[in-house]
UniProtKB/TrEMBL annotation:
Pfam families per UniProt: TetR_N
Organism of provenance: Nocardioides zeae
Name of the protein this chain belongs to: TetR/AcrR family transcriptional regulator
DNA-binding region: 33-52
GO molecular function: DNA-binding transcription factor activity; transcription cis-regulatory region binding
Transcription regulation in keyword set: yes
Cited InterPro entries: Homeodomain-like_sf (IPR009057), HTH-type_TetR-like_transc_reg (IPR050109), HTH_TetR (IPR001647)
Keyword check for Transcription regulation: yes
Length: 202
């Protein structure tokens, strides 16, 4: 008789179920069943309902997990500060793109058309996350502050805005920008070094 598996701690069980749920929901949307999620997590379906009383609770938790900035901020913190400016920003942009794409994917799979709004506190929390995210990018730009003609916060803001629009499947018309393209536009613009803009005032 084989020994019984050691029961998972509640937090570990929750993380295991969510980790199994996300790819299934991205693939099948709300049609993903709790039985499929339980099988992918390696637990009984009843275990899913002990952690999440309803499927709606599970879907809400999947959305919350996608919006949680902890993993994203940790990834940004791991970007090598010793890299030259351009590859450093390319690495950071890839991290930001990954976060946006996961959020877009989960929202699309759940049929959410716009930013989820639940309460004033949620709105304030979302604003705080955006500020923390922007500050994390600012800190990656700051070592080269003297190279810019605008404050580093403006550089970080432009990088984030272009990454958002360039990664969104609808805004980019399904032709998303690469991290390299986004950084090149922010750092170098689109004119050749010797080009001048035409004088249209005449």
């Amino acid at each position: 008789m084989s020994p019984r598996a050691t029961p998972m701690a509640p937090d570990e069980r929750r993380r295991t179920i969510l980790a199994a749920a996300v790819p299934l929901i991205l693939e099948r949307g709300q049609a993903a069943t709790t039985r499929q999620i339980a099988e992918a997590a390696g637990v009984a379906e009843g275990t899913v309902f002990r952690v999440f009383p309803t499927k709606e609770d599970l879907l809400d938790a999947v959305l919350d997990a996608a919006l949680d900035p902890a993993h994203f901020l940790a990834e940004l913190a791991r970007v090598d500060r010793s890299l030259p400016l351009e590859p450093r920003l390319v690495a950071a942009t890839r991290v930001v793109q990954g976060r946006f794409r996961e959020i877009f994917g989960v929202m699309t799979a759940l049929g959410i058309q716009g930013p989820p709004r639940r309460s004033r506190q949620d709105d304030e929390d979302a604003l705080a996350v955006r500020r923390r995210s922007l500050q994390a990018v600012v800190e990656l730009v700051e070592p080269d502050a003297d190279a810019f003609r605008v404050p580093v916060r403006e550089v970080a803001r432009m990088l984030r805005l272009l990454t958002f629009s360039g990664s969104h499947p609808h805004l980019s018309a399904d032709e998303p920008l690469t991290a390299e393209e986004i950084v090149a536009v922010v750092l170098h613009g689109t004119l050749t070094p010797t080009a001048t803009t035409p004088d249209r005032s005449a």
